[in-house]
C-alpha cells in the first residue's frame, strides 16, 4: 500500500474522469448494440462488412466499459484503504500524545496547554483561549518542558515528530 | 487520553465516510437531467425526446451493471429491496431512532427500485410507440403517460424523503450525492 504518494485530490479527480468515461462509453456502447440489432433485423446476415465492423466496435466498447469499471472499483477501494490508514494514524497519534502526557504526570491544565503548544499556538494565544494571564501560561509551559526533559518549545515538539518518523519507518518495514 | 482526542479535533469528532463513487453520482444527476428535459422542455413527439429517452434507459442499464460489479455501497447487496426492512425502518423512526444508513435507507431503497423500474417501463413503452406494430396503439400511449405521472409523483416523494432524512438523521444527503461524502454527526449509530 503506497500511502500518500498520490495526493487524495488527484485520485478523486482521476475517479471522476474515469466515471465520466464509463458513462459516455457505456451509453455509446448501448447505441452501437441497438444499431447492430436493428441492422441485423433488416439485413439478416452477419457477413456484411459494415455490420461486422459495427459488431467489433460494439464488443470493443463493451470490453472498454468493463475494463474501466474494474479500474474505477480498484481506485475506489485504494482510496478507502488510504482513508483507513490515515484514520489509524490520527488515532495512533492521539494515543501516543496521551501516553506521553500520562508518563510525564502533567496536570489537566498542563495537558491542555501542552496540546495547544503542539498545535502551534504561542503563549499569548493560549492565554486568550484559556482566559488566564500569559504569565500563568508561561509558568505552565516551563513546568511542561521540565517534566518532559526538553529545553524549550522546539525540542518539546520535536519529541512527537521523532515519534511520528520512527513510526513511519516501522510501517515501511512492515509493508 | 480521552481529553486529548476530544480537544484534538476542532469539530466535535464528526466523521466523514466516502459513500457514493463518482459513477453513481454522475448517473444520478444525468438521470435527473434526462427526466427534467423530457418532462418539461423537449417537444413530446420530437427526435430529441426519443434520444433523451434512450439515454435515460442507458443510464439505468449502466447503473444496474454497476450494482453487480461496483464498490460495496453501490452494490445490490448494500440495499436489498425488502418491504420488511422498510417497515422496521419506519417503526424505528416512530420510536425516535435516528441512526444513519451508509447506503440507501430501507425506504429510500424501495424508491430507488421504483424509479429505475418506472424509467425502464417509460422507455420501453416509448420505444414501442416508434415501432410499426404499436404505433398509434392507444393503451401504449396511455401507459406511457400514466407511467410518467407516476414517475413525477415518485420523484417528488423522493425529494421529500431526502429532505426528511436530512433533517431526521442530520446527514446532508444532497451534499452526499454531490461530493460523495456522508458526514456522520458525533455519537450517531451507523447501519
UniProtKB/TrEMBL annotation, chain A:
Residues 103-160 form the HTH luxR-type domain. SMART domains: HTH_LUXR (SM00421). GO terms for molecular function: DNA binding. Keywords: Membrane, Transmembrane, Transmembrane helix. InterPro entries: Sig_transdc_resp-reg_C-effctor (IPR016032), Tscrpt_reg_LuxR_C (IPR000792), WH-like_DNA-bd_sf (IPR036388). Pfam families: GerE. This is HTH luxR-type domain-containing protein. It comes from Pseudaestuariivita atlantica.
UniProtKB/TrEMBL annotation, chain B:
InterPro entries: Cyt_b561_bac/Ni-Hgenase, Di-haem_cyt_TM, Hydrogenase_cytochrome. It is a multi-pass membrane protein. One of its GO terms (molecular function) is heme binding. It is found in: Cell membrane. Signal peptide: none annotated. One of its GO terms (cellular component) is plasma membrane. It holds the Pfam family Ni_hydr_CYTB. Keywords: Cell membrane, Membrane, Transmembrane, Transmembrane helix. Its main location: membrane. The keyword Ribosomal protein does not apply. Residues 19-180 form the Cytochrome b561 bacterial/Ni-hydrogenase domain. The chain crosses the membrane at residues 54-74, 115-135, 147-168. GO terms for biological process: respiratory electron transport chain. This is Cytochrome B.
Amino acid at each position: 500500500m503506497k500511502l500518500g504518494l498520490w495526493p487524495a485530490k488527484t485520485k478523486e479527480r482521476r475517479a471522476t474522469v474515469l466515471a465520466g468515461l464509463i458513462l459516455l462509453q457505456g451509453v455509446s456502447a448501448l447505441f452501437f448494440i441497438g444499431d447492430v440489432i436493428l441492422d441485423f433485423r433488416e439485413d439478416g446476415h452477419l457477413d456484411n462488412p459494415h455490420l461486422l465492423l459495427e459488431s467489433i466496435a460494439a464488443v470493443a466498447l463493451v470490453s472498454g466499459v468493463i475494463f474501466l469499471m474494474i479500474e474505477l472499483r480498484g481506485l475506489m477501494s485504494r482510496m478507502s484503504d488510504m482513508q483507513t490508514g490515515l484514520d489509524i494514524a490520527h488515532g495512533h497519534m492521539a494515543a501516543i500524545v496521551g501516553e506521553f502526557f500520562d508518563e510525564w504526570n502533567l496536570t489537566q491544565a498542563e495537558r491542555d496547554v501542552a496540546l495547544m503548544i503542539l498545535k502551534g499556538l504561542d503563549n499569548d494565544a493560549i492565554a486568550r483561549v484559556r482566559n488566564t494571564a500569559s504569565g500563568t501560561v508561561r509558568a505552565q509551559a516551563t513546568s511542561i518542558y521540565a517534566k518532559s526533559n526538553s529545553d524549550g518549545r522546539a525540542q518539546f515538539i520535536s519529541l512527537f515528530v521523532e515519534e511520528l518518523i520512527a513510526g513511519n519507518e516501522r510501517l515501511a518495514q512492515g509493508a | 487520553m480521552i481529553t486529548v482526542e476530544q480537544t484534538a479535533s476542532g469539530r466535535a469528532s464528526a466523521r466523514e465516510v466516502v459513500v457514493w463513487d463518482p459513477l453513481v453520482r454522475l448517473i444520478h444527476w444525468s438521470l435527473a437531467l434526462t427526466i427534467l428535459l423530457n418532462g418539461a422542455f423537449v417537444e413530446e413527439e420530437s427526435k430529441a425526446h426519443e434520444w433523451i429517452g434512450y439515454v435515460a434507459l442507458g443510464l439505468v442499464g449502466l447503473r444496474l451493471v454497476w450494482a453487480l460489479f461496483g464498490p460495496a455501497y453501490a452494490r445490490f447487496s448494500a440495499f436489498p429491496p425488502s418491504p420488511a426492512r422498510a417497515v422496521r425502518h419506519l417503526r424505528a423512526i416512530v420510536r425516535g431512532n435516528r441512526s444513519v444508513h451508509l447506503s440507501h435507507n430501507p425506504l429510500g431503497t424501495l424508491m430507488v427500485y421504483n424509479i429505475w423500474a418506472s424509467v425502464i417501463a417509460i422507455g420501453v413503452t416509448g420505444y414501442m410507440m416508434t415501432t410499426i406494430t404499436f404505433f398509434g396503439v392507444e393503451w401504449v400511449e396511455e401507459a406511457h403517460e400514466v407511467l410518467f405521472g407516476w414517475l413525477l409523483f415518485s420523484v417528488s416523494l423522493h425529494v421529500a424523503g431526502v429532505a426528511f432524512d436530512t433533517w431526521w438523521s442530520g446527514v446532508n444527503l444532497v451534499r452526499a450525492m454531490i461530493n460523495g461524502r456522508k458526514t456522520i454527526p458525533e455519537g450517531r449509530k451507523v447501519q
